[in-house]
Amino acid sequence: MSLSSLPVRTPSTARLHDRSDRLTPQPILGEGAPRLAMSFLAGDSVRPTLAQALSFAKFANMCDPVADDLVAAMRRGDRRRIRAQFEQALEHGIETVDDPAPEVAAFIAALDDVPYWVDYDKLDLAARAIARMPLSTLMAFTTALAFPASYVSPRVNDVLLRGGDLEKRAAARIVETVAWSMDCTAPGGMERFGAGTRNTARVRLVHAFIRAGIDQVDDWNVDTHGRPVNQLHYCVTMIPIAGVALAVMAAGHWYSRRERDAIVHLYRYVAHTMGVTAELQVTSLDELLRLIWLATWSEVDPDESSRILTDAALKAVPRIYGVDGPGFANRLRSWGYYHFHADLARLALGPGYSDAVGIPRLSPMAALYPLWFARNLVRDRLSVAVPGGARRAARRGHTERMRGIAEVKRRLQTRPYERDEAVQTIKERDRELRTRSA
């Protein structure tokens, strides 16, 4: 069952509140890492009921009115002036903007609205814990897990493929996503003028630009897809990113219970800043797993677009690591890096889903995972074994991560993704389709 096949008529009250009437598992949850997570971390208690599924379905038509209003104001008025006001307020506060547009003021007010539940000590603890993780591990899990896992839904993929040259710029897009994630998890990154807060607000505006562009074309089916870049789409894309921060424990980067709780809290605040509705912001690991359950049940239906985007992400690996040049040595390293990441993807996502999206069978590189886990675990445990070691490891790790990502971005010549360009791409593709059909 999926969102498109939910009962048209509301079930009887008794069935709606039947706690035993739980959803049938999707096959992906019975394989690989998802099966282990569901079995050992939570068990059957996180399997949602039909009533919860019906409640979840309504978010397919909910977006982000504050961001949508701001984009509408930019498109009908002086776009440069309003965008300049937005950037000025984002960087220095709304009080520094002379006569701000009402839509700018409303967006910044939403950004400045700090929920009562925010715990800055937890944000700091999460940042220190994540900083111990090397860039290589974050890059591997983002490439092999977060990106393929976010391509599970043809409805989400439709937005991604319309929104720009995602397939061609796979390496740059992965690195840009890793850099954004590092901004959010850096010390102070989610404070008001931290890089994580500012860049998350820009990504939020990006989503509204893409929504506005897709709303102008005629072939988007709201009945089957919901609104473009809706709240369910946020779940499909945000869950893998948040999940990676915890999934790295499978690579030996171990977190205490307090650290895991703090990491969930941090990503709850990231989701709030991104414009995710409060009802979909998770407060615990159990809630995260239940949300994964719902998102998997409603959205997992891999098709050719899933295969194309997953293939592009994995084939971008050699370029990300700078081993895509000529010569036998580079070809050998390229093969090794590619299969190391492809094997990680297959182990994480399970054989059924991996076969559906064309992830290769396990290679000899999979034999390195026990060694990788052992090395990371020993390094991580030693770094926190002595008094003050965790803080020193976090400072050292943050410095090394920022230096490393700057080097990768320089080599790939990444650029801020101009979403007005994405909207223009949508329009051009729509015109091309109209010309072909005529």
Termini separation: 37 Å
Taking the sheet with the most strands, its summary is: none
What is the 3D shape? globular
The low-pLDDT segments are: 417-427
Helical residue percent band: 55-70%
Describe the structure in your own words.
With 438 residues, this protein is an all-alpha fold. It has one domain (119-430). Helices cover 66% and strands 0% of the residues. It has helices at residues 13-16, 32-42, 50-57, 65-76, 79-92, 102-112, 120-131, 135-149, 154-162, 170-185, 195-214, 222-225, 231-247, 257-274, 285-299, 304-315, 317-320, 328-349, 351-357, 369-385, 389-412, 419-437. α8 (135-149) packs across α18. The protein is globular and about 55 Å long.
Task: Provide a brief overview of the structure.
By secondary structure, the chain is mostly helical. The chain is 66% helix and 0% strand. The chain has one domain.
